[in-house]
Design a protein that fits this description.
Blueprint (H helix, E strand, L loop, with lengths): L2 H13 L3 H27 L14 H12 L1 H12 L9 H22 L6 H6 L6 H34 L5 H11 L6 H34 L11 H27 L8 H32 L2 H11 L4 H19 L7 H28 L14 H22 L7 H22 L4 H7 L1
Length: 449
């Protein structure tokens, strides 16, 4: 397939829109409208319409906050970190992974603002900051991460925006104007490409460091308290591994859907999914390691307040959710991904769906049981989310999918310029890199034998 044919194939979803797209958009928009009504209802009547209470003052909203911030790490990991390590199989996944990052972060931040009850209270964090507060650390890190991810995402889009500008002459006038403005006069010269590669390469290193910082600081919002179940030194890397775990699973689901709906089988091949499936298998084992280390330390210590929280998960009020989390995050992925016969595209998607459900449950079972069993001599708390919390949660997920679908109608979901670069340069570079690994003189001896 030559360049022009490749361009036509990858630009085809931008030219035609089926009835299924409009139906899905309408359903998602309806869910968003209902969620907006639920939020306005909460604004009028206060947080009393939720299931939040004393001592359980965090619930669905903070669970969503941690979950959305977690899946946002997919873009940084697959695009930035794998770019640094020159993992060539990442190329068809990079655009979608970066989109997951950009479109999930606002709903993580938004969930935090919804939890405050009154959005104007968020201004107090800016007006009256306390540098010793982990919340301020969180605001600084997440806002920096959002801004940096948006810039990184846009920079990697510029060559393909110019391609849309030049190859979609029948697009509407506003759309053509959008492409002309966003392309920033890109002509694809060698000098422009070198500059872009240098900037993206530098930002990849910065984002790789930032992704570790962000979710570690998110975990410190919990870990810097003395709340049972939270006050542990392992909580930073534990949250980070969980974030990467759910993020990679989200990208696998998204790419499998796009492969089927947009007919991208030529670009998203089974080998790509097999690589991401092996990656998820490694993350499954790593997640189990941190989970085991966390709970075996608690059991061995036997501190009464921590044991009350742990027993409420193992055999108490939260036992069903906890063991479902363990089943979804470890048992099912291990069975599906650990066997080559079931590590198919369908098997990886099923495992990824269970992983994301399990990781949402993990965040829930980290937050709620610790608040329900405080150190102070209170009666154990109970928490039952209301229709308001459920509606807003569904609306956040619907809005995330809504934005992603709109993006696929305006811009190529697979980076065309990166695929071209892979064909033109990478094959030779990979061969040269492999030769550099061989013992010195090995090629010459093999040639004369």
């Amino acid at each position: 397939m030559d360049r022009m044919e490749e361009d036509i194939v990858l630009l085809e979803p931008l030219k035609r829109t089926g009835k299924g797209f409009y139906l899905a958009i309408w359903i998602l928009f309806s869910l968003m409208v209902w969620a907006f009504y639920a939020w306005t209802y909460q604004l009028r009547h206060g947080l009393g319409v939720t299931g939040l209470n004393r001592p359980i003052f965090w619930g669905f909203y903070i669970t969503n906050f941690v979950f959305f911030i977690g899946i946002s790490h997919a873009g940084t990991l697959i695009s930035a970190i794998l770019r640094i390590f020159k993992a060539e199989w990442r190329r068809p996944f990079t655009r979608a992974a970066e989109a997951v990052t950009v479109f999930s972060l606002p709903f993580g931040v938004g969930s935090l603002m919804i939890d405050m009850g009154r959005p104007d209270r968020f201004l107090n964090v800016i007006k009256h900051p306390q540098i010793q507060s982990p919340i301020i650390w969180d605001v600084c890190c997440v806002s920096t991460y959002l801004l940096s991810s948006c810039i990184y995402f846009y920079l990697a889009l510029i060559p393909d925006i110019a391609l849309c500008r030049d190859n979609l002459p029948h697009a509407s006038r506003p759309r053509q104007m959008l492409y002309r403005i966003l392309a920033l006069g890109w002509k694809g010269t060698e000098r422009q490409r070198e500059r872009l590669e240098k900037i993206i390469g530098g930002m990849s290193i910065f984002l790789a460091l930032l992704v570790v910082t962000v979710h570690t600081v998110v975990s410190w919002v919990f870990g810097m308290t003395v709340q049972p179940g939270w006050h542990t030194t392992i909580i930073g890397p534990y949250f980070l591994v969980g974030a990467i775990f759910s993020g990679v699973a989200t990208v696998a689901i998204v790419m499998a859907i796009l492969r089927k709906v947009l007919h991208l089988e030529v670009y998203l091949r089974k080998a790509h999914f097999d690589n991401i499936g092996v990656f998820l298998l490694c993350l499954t084992l790593l997640w189990f390691y941190f989970t085991f280390a966390e709970y075996i330390t608690t059991i061995y210590g036997g501190e009464p307040s921590h044991m009350r929280v742990l027993l409420s998960k193992f055999s108490g009020d939260f036992a069903i959710l906890f063991w479902l989390m363990f089943l979804f995050c470890f048992v099912i992925p291990l069975v599906l991904l650990g066997n080559r016969r079931t590590r198919t595209i369908s098997g990886i998607v099923v495992a990824s769906i269970f992983i994301n459900i399990g990781m949402w449950l993990e965040r829930f079972t980290i937050i709620i049981p610790s608040l329900a069993r405080p150190r102070l001599p209170y009666e154990p708390g109970t928490y039952f989310p209301t229709w308001v919390e459920g509606s807003i949660t569904v609306g956040c997920f619907a809005a995330f999918i809504f934005l992603f679908m709109l993006f696929t109608k305006f811009f190529p979901i697979i980076s065309i310029w990166e695929m071209r670069e892979s064909r033109e340069k990478t094959l030779a570079e990979v061969g040269e890199r492999i030769r550099s690994y061989l013992p010195q003189g090995a090629e010459g001896r093999s040639g004369t034998t």
